[in-house]
Design goal:
There is one protein chain. With 259 residues, the chain is mostly helical. It is 71% helix and 2% strand. It contains 10 helices and 2 strands. The chain has a two-stranded antiparallel sheet with strand order 1-2. The protein starts with a helix and ends with a helix.
Length: 259
């Protein structure tokens, strides 16, 4: 039970640590810490650290952008887009409703991200909560773990494209890719992958629509909507092949193969 709670906390810590403006993992430019508005405390061992009050403000502010971080740094985007395309291919309008799809995508995201969340909990959140490391170091470790996950799913061409837009030269390895480059490259790759999976899901239902339309035209039933006839057949096909299980298992395996 305690480990489960820690995983949930670590999942939220993805946003808390990486989105704060003072976290080097998200902004490699450490000049951010030199802004006058950020009060810094001197450490006995040398250097400076964020004051406790400022850390609290950062953590509370980061909670507001938690949904955005879930969108751009986890598997949520690929899952929700694929499920939305699947619903459109079935032609069931708003069934399943958006709330069901989002809830399913969130829990599938949690399932897929569990190894990453556990790694963040062990490497960043547990030492930070025990007072062994500062929030800056926790942010660096969190960003490193998240970047490693994202780069496993990101095409090299997307990284090159984003780095060229940023004006960077070629990177020597994954560790040299900045967090601000990894995030947009990851999103572009996720969108491409989601649409590719959605296209493959769409094909069998498109064939059913074409066959039904051809039969109705040959029978002279021009006024009868093909959707009224094809929808039961598409639902029957989807149920027979256990479509939801196949779709979700394929999504999970797509991340496992990338990893």
């Amino acid at each position: 039970m305690m480990k489960s709670r820690a995983s949930w906390v670590a999942f939220g810590f993805i946003a808390l640590a990486t989105c704060a403006i003072a976290v080097p993992a998200f902004a490699a430019d450490k000049s951010l810490f030199e802004l006058p508005i950020l009060k810094l405390d001197n450490l006995p061992t040398g250097g400076q650290s964020l004051s406790l009050s400022l850390q609290a403000v950062i953590l509370m502010s980061a909670l507001t952008i938690l949904p955005s971080m879930i969108l751009v740094t986890t598997s949520f985007t690929r899952i929700i887009i694929t499920l939305s395309i699947l619903r459109q291919a079935l032609g069931t309008q708003q069934t399943p409703p958006n709330q069901v799809l989002v809830g399913l995508a969130l829990f599938m995201t949690l399932f897929i991200m569990t190894p990453t969340i556990t790694e963040i909990n062990d490497a960043a959140f547990a030492p930070y909560s025990a007072g062994q490391i500062s929030i800056e170091e926790a942010g660096v470790r969190t960003g490193t773990v998240m970047k490693k996950f994202m780069l496993r799913q990101t095409r090299q061409t997307d990284i090159i494209m984003v780095s060229e837009l940023r004006g960077d030269k070629a990177y020597n390895g994954p560790d040299d890719v900045p967090f601000l480059v990894a995030v947009p490259a990851f999103m572009i790759s996720e969108l491409r992958t989601a649409f590719t999976i959605g296209f493959l899901l769409y094909l069998p239902f498109l064939v059913i629509d074409i066959v039904v339309s051809s039969i109705l035209m040959s029978l002279g039933m021009m006024m009868l909507s093909p959707m009224l006839i094809s929808l039961p057949f598409k639902l029957l096909l989807f149920v027979i092949v256990d479509g939801w299980a196949l779709t979700l298992s394929s999504l999970v395996e797509s991340f496992a193969r990338s990893g």
